[in-house]
Specification:
The protein starts with a helix and ends with a helix. Helix 3 (20-39) crosses helix 11 and helix 4 (44-63) crosses helix 11. By secondary structure, it is mainly α. It folds into 2 domains: 2-269, Rhopdopsin 7-helix transmembrane proteins (Up-down Bundle), CATH 1.20.1070; 284-404, no CATH class. The chain is built from 19 helices and no strands.
């Protein structure tokens, strides 16, 4: 414990995060987004998000120490993985910036000013990538460094400029992107799931800034003759991994959250219709056939269709006068108007199902069928409270019905 307390690098080693973990999370985000990207291929925003996730995944694949070693061995050039990884990081930084500039506040901005800004971003970050390779070709880096190249070659001519260039380009992009995300997340009228996703993206880019700060501090310390290499080799990598996980979660959350919310809404709607469905099934003598492979949406649609198909001919036997009295009775019992309408409709349907129309000597005037068919969810909810319905029904009964004991 004493050694860990005195040695920050040893403490951070205890919290090492493999780069394959954020790679897996980014891949999962891409897989979740892929069906929408394929289905809506013409949507440039979805294509851009897919490209960003793919590029971010490539960054972590190629920045993994084992991959760095393989790239160096495959080419036979010591440390050639460095400009390749720097180029991927720079490209991803520029791509993030392009994405946020082009789709400011979630809408594609086609203004001339935005087009000029996009061209500047492409020109600057494309030029940075070219400069990274030129500087690497000019630098002398004979000794392979897998984990500490940034600090080991921090004082080497041309390599020093290359390291500073990619860190500055990355930091500027993260700073601007964070600002744009912050502004977007605080836009009025934003979907709740999108707002949560943007907050995760903002947290991810904030960690990216900490990653950049740790790297720059370690490099500056080398220039000043001090050794703070642990900031670059032990602190920066887990910050980058956590940042990628938060960014991937930020892209996943709006899609997954909306999907789960829709599934929950459909299942709740299906369950809410159960009382009315059971009543209509008793009237028709049959129900909706069960299909094992039916989607929740299909099952809900079939249940709604079945209820309406049975309810429509039944409306001829519903007493509109009873419905009016039941509505007034529900209001008198303290129910709000919308709830009173549902209770009155439920009383009318139960009366018709129970043969109320057949006991009357005169034909009844039925309610508007379209109104009943629109309100099946509210009517079904009302059927869940038989005691309340009984109170409304008793209050709405005419004196003759009460004397006859009709309920």
């Amino acid at each position: 414990m004493t050694r860990l307390a005195l040695d920050p690098s040893a403490l951070l080693d205890e919290f090492y995060i493999s780069f394959w973990i954020p790679t897996a999370v980014l891949a999962a985000a891409l897989v979740i987004k892929l069906p929408s990207i394929i289905r809506l291929w013409r949507d440039p925003l979805l294509r851009a998000v897919g490209g960003l996730l793919l590029l971010a995944g490539a960054v972590f694949v190629f920045c993994t120490p084992s991959t760095i070693v393989r790239v160096n061995r495959l080419t036979g050039v010591p440390n050639i993985a460095a400009p390749w990884c720097y180029s991927l990081i720079t490209a991803m930084s520029g791509f993030c910036l392009l994405l946020l500039v082009a789709w400011r506040n979630g809408r594609y901005d086609r203004s001339a000013a935005t087009r000029r800004a996009l061209r500047r971003v492409v020109s600057v970050y494309g030029g940075v990538i070219v400069a990274l390779w030129v500087l690497f070709l000019l630098a002398d880096t004979p000794e392979e460094r897998v984990r500490d190249l940034d600090t080991f070659y921090a004082g080497t001519p041309f390599m020093r400029e290359e390291i500073l260039l990619y860190l500055v380009a990355h930091g500027v992009a993260c700073l601007i992107t964070s600002r744009l995300i912050w502004d977007w997340a605080h836009t009025e009228g934003l979907d709740a799931w999108l707002r949560r996703g943007l907050k995760l993206l903002g947290a991810g880019y904030a960690l990216n800034l900490l990653f950049n700060g740790a790297k720059l501090t370690a490099v500056f310390a080398r220039w000043c003759g001090r050794d703070l290499d642990w900031l670059s080799t032990n602190l920066a990598p887990p910050l980058a991994a956590l940042s990628a996980i938060l960014v991937a979660a930020g892209f996943i959350l709006p899609h997954a959250g909306q999907y789960l919310q829709d599934r929950r809404r459909i299942r709740l709607a299906h369950r809410e219709l159960r009382p009315l469905y059971r009543l209509m099934r008793g009237v028709s003598g049959e129900g909706v056939p069960f299909t094992l492979r039916g989607t929740p949406e299909l099952r809900l649609t079939r249940r709604e269709t079945f209820i309406r198909d049975v309810l429509l001919p039944l409306t001829r036997h519903i007493d509109a006068d009873l419905g009016t009295r039941a509505y007034d009775a529900a209001l008198a019992l303290g129910h709000p108007p919308e709830r009173a309408r549902a209770l009155a409709a439920a009383v009318g349907i139960l009366d018709a199902v129970g043969g109320g129309a057949g006991r009357r000597s005169e034909p009844v005037t039925g309610p508007d069928p379209s109104s009943l068919l629109r309100e099946i969810a509210a009517i079904s909810r009302a059927l869940r409270h038989p005691a309340t319905l009984e109170a409304v029904r008793s209050s709405a009964a005419v004196p003759e019905d009460r004397a006859a004991g009709v309920v």
